[in-house]
Amino acid sequence: MSDREVRARKKRKGALEKGAAELPSTPGKSSSHKHSDSELEDDSASTSEPSATAKVTFLIIFVALAITVGAVVIALRSAAPTIEIADETVLDDIQESIIFPQDEHELESENYATERDKSNDLQQSIENSNGNGDKRNFNTDSTQELQSSQHIVLETTSADTPHYFDTTQPGDGTEVTSEHTEEIAQSTTEPEVPSSTESVTLAQTAPLKQEETAQGASQDATSASEGSPPLSDMPTSTLETMQVKPDFPEEESAITNEYDEKIQDDLRDSEELLEKFPERALQRFKEILQAHPLSPRASYGKAQALEKLAELKKSNAMLEQAIQAYAEVMNLPQVPDELYLKAGNRSVDRMRFRGMLTRALKLQSEMSAKFPKNVGIKNQMAVSFLMIGRGQQAADLLEQVLKQDGNSGFAKVHYGFILKTERNDLPGAIKYMSEGIATREPGVIDGRFYFHLGDALARTGQSEKALTIYKEGVKEGLFYSVYQRSLYNIDGLKAQPWWDAKETSYAAAIRELERNWVDIKNEALSLMNDKGFQPESENLRDSGDWKQFEIYARGRRIEKNCRLAPKTCALIGRMPDAAGCKRGQVKFSLMHPGTHVWAHTGPTNCRLRAHLGLVVPPRVRIRVANETREWKEGKVLVFDDSFEHEVWHEGDRFRLVLIVDFWHPELTAAQKASLSPI
């Protein structure tokens, strides 16, 4: 090889080496490694494989998530007809969103328990609460006697007249299961006192304020008096043992749409279980709703079963869920009008019982807008207004009803009641209550109307007619006798107008009062210029001046007054059946010359009233039933104020006594604990 060729080869080799040296500037290649074409292909493949795997993995995860979300949505939709609520806060949110957001008027102690139920699992048995199971109800059915020992349910209307809802079927909705509830224990507690005292309208509904409670003014400790039963405890229901009955066959067509006609047999079979086997009925209705979620009758049956279970278990949580279930019935598409009214009526009834009076009024307003010609809705709306002390609005509504239906006995008795208790229009009250009672419609044969009609007659000088009304009240089972006309009673208690201290179980306490009468008198005299003495506020005075200074009311100390009368309060505090008497008071009673107190009766037979004479001038006397006595200084008179009593002060200076209410000595400890305050 020539030198020229050698130099040429070296030159080419140098060029190749120079080109190889430039390769590291290419991304992904090592400066010390040369790649063949096949190696480059392998490298390319290896870098593309991770990207493809990630895409496949992401796709699989996305599909799995989509399937999971879809399954959850389907499950939620299928569960919608049978909402199960284990948390009360959630329950309240659901109620407010489905029914009507609002501020509630709460009734004191008006529920199944003194503490709300705390059940977190609706599949567990809910145990009965130890609280009071009393209900604030009224006898409004002409065929029913007032039996305080019965367990009762608010029946807002009756099916006997087209102007009233058919509410003979309790029901409320919630999912709960428990075992062995076939045996129904009947309560022996007395109905609670319904609360407000005044009346009201709807045409232009004033804003409902939060502080307006169903107790109205009578809920305040200072408003309790020696006088008549709470004036605003208005009848809203038939007094009867809690029962859930299936509809009669002739009613089925009115509550059955085409959807339910296809499952008529299943519905009937389930409805037959309601009374004795509510849990089995609930399960059957739930099964029907799984297959037929838009069935109005199955939804209503479910609500009825839940209401029955709430009653049996004394469960507030279940009761509130029952209220929710009735709302669900009303919101269903193509719900028959009759079933809509039945569900609305029961919902209102249970809301009242639970203390949700503002919510009840809003629901009634919606119902009235949907059925403007239905005077039954307006009548019951007037009752709801009365329960929160809104008498003017109740009166306006009742006037509307009487324009639509001048023969409505229910509207007449309630309107007459308002004329007497709020406007002191005695002639008008006599006219409307007399005419209303004469119709004997459901809701008019009630002790309150007989009581106030007789009282109005007596105050207008028609004593014989008043006595006739009282005798009719006894015949109807509304009063124990023409003299004993209390309305919130326990049956079977010894009843006599006057008592001797030895006949009671409080002889020692009475002796203690008499031993300390001078100290008590001096303490009372020191208070006479104090503003704590308040005028009698229940329109019991015919003439004169009568004031009272309370130190205990409804079983509670009035602290500000006890600070002014510490000795008397301390003495009473050592007498548990006086200090703890939830249906009574302890107060100083100051009466000036020229005072006459109308004949009246107290609200309950559950107490005895003791009067300790402190300052007693001549010619001051008290009549209880048909026997009249006089006070003596330092001595105690004991009588049963559920009997008619009347007071005259014909002396020349003030009369001062200490009034002390004791539980009736025949009440048991359990009864004392369970009875609602008056």
From TrEMBL:
Name the keywords, alphabetized: Coiled coil, Membrane, Transmembrane, Transmembrane helix
- A Pfam match is Asp_Arg_Hydrox
Q: Where is this region: Disordered?
A: 1-49, 101-237
Using the record's annotation, list all stretches that form the Aspartyl/asparaginy/proline hydroxylase domain: 514-665
Q: Report the transmembrane regions from the record.
A: 56-76
Any one GO molecular-function label of the UniProt entry: peptidyl-aspartic acid 3-dioxygenase activity
Q: Where do Polar residues bias regions lie?
A: 121-132, 139-171, 184-204, 213-226
Q: Which domain of life is it from?
A: Eukaryota
* Coiled coil region boundaries: 302-329
Spell out the family assignment given in the record's similarity comment.
Belongs to the aspartyl/asparaginyl beta-hydroxylase family.
- PANTHER family this protein is in? ASPARTYL BETA-HYDROXYLASE, ISOFORM L, ASPARTYL/ASPARAGINYL BETA-HYDROXYLASE
Please identify the protein, giving its name as recorded: Putative aspartyl beta-hydroxylase
Please tell me the species this chain comes from: Ixodes scapularis
